[in-house]
């Protein structure tokens, strides 16, 4: 079977090289290859499978919808599935948090949401420049790449990426420089050469950038800086939203209300393509059709998303469970760090990382884990961080099994 991928699929493929087997089935926290071998999944579709593979609660709603010939492709037409999505999202997510947003469906992926946010911010303010942060990742299309930090991914654009300026992320200078000293000085100095920014885009926890978690006080300071200088605040919650850090939105702990929020990955509940852009009502200045996309109305994803809101966000049970499981992962990572020099525990909730000074170590640990039937990704500018992101629905037993494999893999590599 692997011969067909080598002969016909583009050389751009990557995850299939990291985990060299052919997968056939997936249930809950497990992937099964064509021979029936089970692999515990601490990757969760890069955050697209927060509720696990083929979640039975969501699957039944999807099967019922397909069986009754419910609309599949709907552009941005009004459908019952979309109405249900909006109603359940508002009732279970927005209203309990005191949030008032209009909902835009920009296309099927996270980068579609980011592109719409950047375009809208420029339209609202009449400015061009966007502020991003070191080690950020926002997507692979040109606008999203312009606010992404990774040089390899930026280089793939093949053209200059303009109208974006990077600033230091939280603790970029290891606490030696006060928060926003450079950023604010650039904003206030008429000789700095910094174009007046339309917006700031930020991940509260950088997933692809190395599991870099910002402090609540840093985020509050950033929000205040945006208000002071008339910049919109865009939070990219594509990977860290939908409960990955505990609360539904990763910015809740900071008590801020961004002007625009980008969501994708697990927003559809079941792993199907869906993205939304949340916009404060006063900023919803789009003309009809000014931003669109053929696949912005994935109705089966609306169905599974609505059920996910009902099943997992009608109360705070999942949030509390995620925080508790995350603390358990953090405890084990601290133990590993104490046992091995040159390592650092990172992250919060169930977005955790184990960073290494030696940039070759994380990849070897990922391979050792795969050999032990555990799926682990790496992240960071040099792939120096082991990234630990199980489904939020992972059982305590599965979590402990995965943590045991991580311990064994680290010891095997660093022995």
Report what the structure shows:
This is Diaminobutyrate--2-oxoglutarate transaminase. With 415 residues, the chain is of the alpha/beta class. The radius of gyration is 21 Å and the shape is globular. It is built from 14 helices and 17 strands. The chain has a 7-stranded mixed β-sheet with strand order 4-12-11-10-7-5-6, sandwiched between helices. Strands 1-2-3-15 form a 4-stranded mixed β-sheet. Helix 13 packs across helix 14. The protein has 2 domains: 2-56 and 316-414, Aspartate Aminotransferase, domain 1, CATH 3.90.1150.10; 61-312, Type I PLP-dependent aspartate aminotransferase-like (Major domain) (Aspartate Aminotransferase, domain 2, 3-Layer(aba) Sandwich).
